[in-house]
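User: Structure please.
Assistant: Input sequence and predicted structure:
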Amino acid sequence: METKKIEEFKELRGKIMLGGGVSGNQTERQHAAGKLTARERIEVLYDQESFIEDQVYSTSRTSDFGMDAKRHFGDGVVTGSGTVRGRQVFVSSQDFSIVGGSLGEMHAHKIAEVQELAIRTGSPFVQINDSGGARIQEGVLSLNGYARIFRNNTLASGVIPQISLILGPCAGGAVYSPALTDFIFMVDTISHMYITGPDVIRTVTGEVITHEQLGGASAHCSKSGVAHFRFATEQECFSFLRKFLTYLPSNNSEDPPVVHSGDPVTRPTPDILSIIPDTAKMSYDVRDIITQIADRDSFIEIQKEWAMTLVIGFARLEGRTVGIFANQPKHMAAVLDIDSSDKGSRFIRFCDAFNIPLISLVDVPGYLPGVAQEHAGIIRHGAKMLFAVSEATVPKIALIMRKSYGGSMIAMSAKALGYDRVLAYPTAEIAVMGAESAASIIFHKEIQMAKHPEKKKNEKIAEFQQQFMNPYSAAALGLVDDIIDPEQTRRELIYSLRMISRKKEDRPSRKHGLMPV
């Protein structure tokens, strides 16, 4: 073989591996901004020496607007596959040091190709966004490239897990690819997502806002609900991602990995007795209940800063991944509102798509009343929860801890909606509404005519609670499967999961349902 050509190849390959840092000290600029380079991100994500790059020598073909001088091998994105804790994962990592990571024809082609490989091999796909947006010089070819990526995101939805890391700018049409994926990770101060930036907004509407206020990690994790996790540094983000992937299957035909912790199945949970207050009007943090139930140190909360009346996340029971959605009395008495309904329904559908059993922890007074909620579409949004639970075919368990009232009771714990097993604590209250409101309606005349109306009202409230709101009434009708000792909650949930782990459901043939989006 010709030694000279081999040496030239090695020299070229070495330069390519340096990325845009070959010229203009771009690597130093990334580091100065608190960011890793595209290839450093891959090194941090993957098991050592496992990454195989794809289409290394792709370049743009356009010669318009002076782009000839800006052609680079790889065209501003690194794509390929490697292993994360031994399992294959595909990736695209945009390289901001090459033409600002802008998306042109070949850049988009590379991302689309690796997406399609991930689908064909049944492997998770991680996209790392750090881009100035569409490459204007390539015009409609850039827009067509985005369209191909969006379509692949859609075709992959529910087939393989898709995770987006926003590690730089992500603006305009580029934001819709992350929005089509399952989870979005952001990092404080360096991650920005928006359709139109601060300058355009100031020109069009006169509003003055910074990049961070408009589309930073805090804005999207606490206000818009677009993002699911935020981190202080990229290193923290990648470390968490490696752990997070162990909770997910590689695709929809597999189960998540089993990771045993050594936590005994029959470990008692006596602390639950002191966590839940005696009176229904006092709050508590439902995450303390989850910690008691789940395998030790296994709970990962999702979207913890948004729609906080509902807690969602992954945990493990007996080493197996479960999806938990739980009412949070610590916030607004745990009512379901527009945002928490959206949050819960999306999470339920993800779990159902990827064979993750669901556990509902119930302490809910109802849907949030008010003119603002009604006019913003609480009927439509609340129906999403009903649709998601009804549609899900994975094992579903509900545990009624304190109260389960009205329409929210149906969403969180109704057997007829499709829950396979409904459990309740002896202190649970199950009814159309709270005892005070119910007694005031049912015994209205009797209370009015009483010599001491307030005393009579309290008597009727107590009577109603005793006769109609206790879990034994629901259990007598087969609407609660068992009433359990709170100290045995972990054992009862694990045994219930074992009972229904092999369930199968046949559904009517159809193309798809129409979720009230």
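The chain is about 40% helix and 15% strand.
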